[in-house]
Amino acid sequence: MKKISWLEATSIEEAQRAVNTTVSDALNKNYGKGAIIKSGGIDVLDLMKEGLIAPDRIINIRNIPGLDQIQYDAEKGLRIGANVTLAEIEGNKDIGSYYLALQQSVAKAATPQLRNMSTLGGNLAQRTRCWYFRSKEHACFRKGGAICFAKNGENEYHAIIDNGTCSSVYASSVATALLALDASVEIATMKGERKQVKMGEFFVPPWVEEGQENILEQGEIITAISIPPLKKGVKSYYIKQGARASYDWALADVAVVVEMSGKKCKKAIIALGAAAPIPIRVEDAESILVNEGISEESVLKAADVAMEKAKPLEKNGYKVAIFKTIIKRAIDKTTS
Ligand SMILES: Cc1cc2nc3c(=O)[nH]c(=O)nc-3n(C[C@H](O)[C@H](O)[C@H](O)COP(=O)(O)OP(=O)(O)OC[C@H]3O[C@@H](n4cnc5c(N)ncnc54)[C@H](O)[C@@H]3O)c2cc1C
Fold this sequence. Notes:
This protein has a domain at 234-335: Enolase-like, domain 1, CATH 3.30.390.50. It is 31% helix and 21% strand. The chain has helices at 12-18, 23-28, 42-49, 86-91, 93-98, 100-107, 112-117, 120-125, 174-180, 199-202, 283-292, 296-306, 318-335, and strands at 5-8, 35-38, 57-60, 70-73, 77-81, 184-188, 194-198, 221-227, 234-242, 250-261, 264-273, 280-281. The strands form 3 sheets. The protein has a 5-stranded antiparallel β-sheet with strand order 4-5-8-6-7. It has a 4-stranded antiparallel β-sheet with strand order 9-10-11-12, with helices on both faces. Strands 1-3-2 form a 3-stranded parallel β-sheet, with no helix packed on it.
């Protein structure tokens, strides 16, 4: 049996000194070894069980002080430490009151047991659940191979938009809500700095970088997520459709943020998960709501336009109808 050593990190700096690879590098450079960080450990353990990584050392960042706080301030907005669990986010009253879409996204993720273990930082950095990526037998594009096996294979759960290079989808459905809510990711860099990255710039699509789905480099650690305060009158809503109600990732999910002023729609954000390899905003659909106002026709039109770029694969055409339905329902919830 392989021996694995364990470091119980007590500070970000100690963890960073000990890390010598990212999970992405461990997978793509095909050596699978090295020292990697874990928080909740759900995905790290799965990747080990799947035989995709075999670290020599695990750096546990789960108990580093100061990463487990949720702070809300009406002027500054929300700040959630990277080690806060999904269950803690679900149960937080301020998040329920002011950032409903975020609360709904965590409440719909995984199962209660998994939400008790899963941290926000680990959730955002988990790897795709594409079954070809997760199979040791398939050297797929996201693992540094030449092809995407899903494109002409079992692709019912895969991307319907921007799926030409690789058709896997991002596993975090919480990221869909964070994208719509204009969240930023705070990252501790190896230079000892803290940088802020907008959620939309955190994701890396496969045509930019095949081997990783986010911008995290070796040793970089997410320390917090922050979301600006929402103006009065701004509502958010999140809907996830899975194959099962629990214990499953999204087939399709949507987060909508709408600012109304009387009957006028001043601002609309529509973010989709499990549609493309990374969470996306559908800006053409958003502008219909702003330009044409909210009516049965404009909402249906926005849902149609959101799917205009869809090019489903052989087995996932059904996702288009699901997306149109949940987009419409989410807009209705924020405007009624
Ligand atoms: C059956 C099942 C269903 C699920 N359904 C959903 C779902 O519907 N929606 C959803 O969003 N999620 C879902 N998940 C994912 C789950 O909720 C966890 O969020 C996820 O697996 C990883 O969280 P973790 O804290 O355990 O991370 P870990 O396993 O500890 O880490 C995951 C990755 O992130 C890196 N990492 C961890 N913390 C940090 C940090 N602070 N900074 C930088 N890198 C870090 C690790 O090195 C590793 O690469 C599901 C999981 C399972 C098993």
